[in-house]
């Protein structure tokens, strides 16, 4: 409750608090899933900066298109 009261004092509603808890829980699950798959992340912060700039400029659609093309190529 110690985190709820300051949020309420800033005007957060029950729905907004509920959404925040669900989003935090989802990211916790995503992180555990990715860790469980044994994935690695680039250690160079410049990789993250470049990716963020590309996402801001182009959105996610080029990534989806590339993934779909990769899947199609893998199927033959």
Structural class: mainly alpha
Alpha-carbon distance between the two ends: 55 Å
How many DSSP helices? Answer: 4
Helix and strand pattern: HHHH
Number of strands: 0
Query: How would a textbook summarize the main sheet?
Result: none
Give average pLDDT, whole number: 93
Number of domains: 2
Radius of gyration: 18 Å
Give unreliable regions as ranges: none
Q: Give the strand content.
A: under 5%
What global shape is seen?
elongated
Indicate the percent of residues in helices: over 70%
Descriptive labels:
single chain; 76 residues; mainly alpha; 4 helices; 76% helix; 0% strand; elongated
In short:
With 76 residues, the protein is mainly alpha-helical.
Description of the molecule:
With 76 residues, the protein is mainly alpha-helical. It has two domains: 1-40; 43-76, no CATH class. Helix content is 76%, strand content 0%. It has helices at residues 4-9, 14-36, 45-58, 61-75. The relative contact order is 0.05.
What does the secondary structure layout of this molecule look like, with pairings?
Blueprint: H1 4-9, H2 14-36, H3 45-58, H4 61-75
Protein name: Carboxymuconolactone decarboxylase-like domain-containing protein
InterPro entries: AhpD-like (IPR029032)
Organism: Streptomyces polygonati
């Amino acid at each position: 409750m110690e985190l709820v009261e300051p949020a309420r004092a800033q005007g957060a509603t029950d729905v907004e608090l509920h959404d925040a808890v669900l989003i935090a829980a989802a990211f916790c699950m995503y992180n555990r899933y990715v860790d469980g798959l044994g994935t690695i992340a680039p250690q160079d912060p410049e990789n993250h900066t470049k990716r963020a700039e590309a996402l801001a400029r182009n959105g996610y659609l080029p990534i989806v298109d590339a993934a779909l093309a990769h899947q199609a190529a893998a199927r033959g």
